[in-house]
Amino acid sequence: MQKITKLAFIFLVAILCIVNVAYCAEKEVILQTTSTWDNAKYKKLKIKNPEVTVLKIVINAGESLPMHKHDLVNVAYVKRGTLTVVTDKNEEITLHEGESLPELVGKYHYGKNTGNEPVELIVFYIGEKGTPLSVNK
After folding, report:
1. Could you report the per-residue pLDDT of 51-68, keeping only the tens digit for each?
2. CATH number (domain holding residue 82)
């Protein structure tokens, strides 16, 4: 009986070690915020039919996106390169690889590649299904 108890204990420890290894992925909070990068607080979101969209956007060296706005919440993650975002009031912020940006909501702005290599962005949008991701000025 003692031998079975020892074997059961060893088996249980082995299972716990395997489970623990499976769940010990590293995690790091990249962004957690209640406002956009210009400190505008998010308003209470009333989304009846939510839709999440994730885009990969590449901006080549020296290129700019058109002046646009977003009517939904979105966050951009700079996977590669250097991105400068400029508002229609000439406020700007520059981001580098590994940084993220809580995008402006309802305010016109554009992004431009201010580095020597392509900028690769991963952008996460959440809003009412059917809402355009961006609206050009």
Report:
1. 999 999 999 999 999 999
2. 2.60.120.10
